[in-house]
Structures are given as structure tokens and as C-alpha cells.
Design brief:
The protein has 413 residues and is α/β, with parallel strands linked by helices. It is built from 16 helices and 14 strands. The strands form 4 sheets. It has a 7-stranded mixed sheet with strand order 3-2-1-4-7-6-10, with helices on both faces. Strands 11-12-13 form a 3-stranded antiparallel sheet, with no helix packed on it. Strand 11 and strand 12 form a beta hairpin.
Length: 413
Amino acid sequence: MPPTACTIVSNNYLAQARVFARSFRTHHPDGRVWVLIVDEPHPSIDYEAEPFRTLFAAELGIPAFRSFAFRYSILELNTAVKPYLLAELGQRAGLEGLCYFDPDVLVLAPLDALYDELRGASLLLTPHVTAPLPDERRPSERDLLQAGVYNLGFLGLSFRPDTAEFLRWWQEKLYLECRHRVEEGLFVDQRWMDLAPCLLEDVRILRHPGCNVAYWNLPHRRLRRDSRGWRVGGEPLYFFHFSGFDPDQPDRISRFQDRYTLADRPDVAPLFRDYRERLLEAGLEATRRLDYAWGRFEGGVAVPPCAREALRRLDPEGERWPDPFAAGEDSFLAWLAAPWGGGGDLALPRIAHALWEQRPDLRRQFPTLAGEQAVAFGRWLLERGARQADLEATLLEPVRARLVADGPSPGTG
């Protein structure tokens, strides 16, 4: 069976998916690449013409999918669907195994050794580091502990009874708890994978220096290019992970680290230049401007993060609002815009109260939302809070109308 790979993107990351798929097919011309689109089909994209096979997230059979999509940010949702995609591909394509790669990965050598390794394993994982970090710059070892032992920019999976049960467990965890809440011990799908070697037999940890090279392990990797291609020491560089790379800041290795610039690492600079050129050739300028379908309510109001968290607390199974993106009299949006009952005659909308409930710093600054405290909170929302919390003005119009009618008052700091 030809080697099979998959990745996950929203439409704005299609250029990265194209570069990944082409690099994989360069080294595996008979290989198959599946891409899950975590978005609605965009009219400007001919998905049939892409260099990969396409699935859409709504096809995965995730319960109460519209609610599931609403609860998560774009980052969280793109990771929460991962075990569902793996299970679907195992069934749909009748695979013995496959490898998942993040879309910002470039394959630089044949991966036959990885697929051979997978035949004898339930799971392949790559650790963030295989040696101590030399300093306390970002990312530090503590940062990596918070993010997870293994980097899930790569994952190899064999389809067996034990891994099917493992995928069901992972789906259950990510259905509600694929959250970017490092302070609560959660970093999307990744921290859950720390438990994998405890839950599965035959988990193999790939320590090969050419696997999943990225900003976090660059202190232990020196690259060079010779007649055989890219090398790490004397070993092949199988794939490089450009996590956090911004093509508009081409001298910066990653926005998630402060250890090196490309000037500090001339050994990797040509690889970054090549990757940037590939992205531009793959249509980066057009794709990165594509709107995310689940970033707005029907009618165009942007979904603020506090609304996603409010739905997770109020209706985690999507029973009350099966489609929380909908507009209308009985919609979740109408509920958020309706007056909350505890703010006196200021008529704070429920979205404002939800934001206050979710943020301990606001509860310290405004211990109650009654009387003058409610007025002070309302003024903070209009002056700074709406911008901080990505709340559109339409959601706060009743507050604005009342406070403007009352005239100016001293700021709250």
C-alpha cells in the first residue's frame, strides 16, 4: 500500500497544505495526501484541482458539529478534529496506518524509514527535545513541559483494535477539552498525548535528529546541504517544521522563540528562504486573506472569544442552540445581546456579564456589577474592554446609548 499522509487546515492555510503535499509527493510519487478543511467550501477555490484529496470537517460525523465548531477558536478547532480525521481515514481508505503532519511541514527526503517503523508500532511520536536546553530563553524546558512532551506536528498511527479504542478516548477528551489554556494544564490536543505511552503498547519515540526539526530543537541540530540533500550531521533531514514562521518577517525563525534569528543560524537560512518562496508560489497572498467561515454569526457580527466560552459553559452538548451561529429571535446571538438582569437600569448585555464572569482580573477591578460598579464597568467596556475582548460595537449599543445619555463621568483607570 502506498504511504499515506494527512494534514488539517482552514482555507487561509491552503498554501501551506499545497507546499506540504507537493513536498511529500516529490519523495513519494505514488503516495496519497489527504487534507481536512476545517472551514466551509470557498467559492474561489477549486478543491478538485488541489494536489491532495479533500475532506471537510462537517463530513466527519462529529456530534452537534455546529456547536462543536462554535465552542473553539480556529487553532483549537483545527486540533480538536484530529482524532476524528484519523479514525475516518482508517475506515474510508482501509489503511493499515498513516502519518499526520502539520501543514507548515516541508518533507525533504523519502520517509520510507518512518513508515517501516510504523509497521511494528501502534504510535510514533517525536519529543520536543532529546537533550537539555542550554539556557533559559524561549522556549525553556518549563515552556515545553507546559506545551507537552511530544510535538503533535507529527504523529504516526497504525490501525489496530487498541489504537481504535485510543482514538475514541482522544475524541472524548477533545470534544470539550481541546482548549488553549496553558494556565489550566491544557494545550489543545497536545497535552493529552503525554498519556499515550501509558495507554498503548508499542508506542515508539522517534529520536532521529532529522525528524520534526523546528525552533524548539535547533540548539541540538546543525544543518547542511550536500549532493545528497539536506543533512543533520551525517543523517538525512526527513522533514522540517516551520512552526510560527511569518513570511512577512523572513529573518525571524518563529514568533514562539527568542533564542535565534536567521543571522545567528546561517545553516538554516537557505531552507527558510526556499520555504518562503514555495509558499508565495503556492498562492499565499490570496489564501491567507480568505475569511474563516466560523468566525462570524449569520449577519456578519464577529464571534468574540468570550461568546465561545459562554456557549461551552451554558450548552456544551448543543441541545439548547444546535446552531449557535444562527441569527433570529431565539438564537444564541439574541440571548447574548439581551439584557442581563443584575446590572440595575444600565441593562448590561449578557455578553458583558459573561466576559466579567470569565476574567478574574475584571472581577477584582469591579467586585460587583450593580449600581456605580456597573456604570464603571460599562465605561471600561466602551473605552478599552471592547477592543481587548474583540466585542463588536453592535453588541454594546445599549450600554453606549445609556452612558452617552447620562453624560461624561470620570474614568476608572
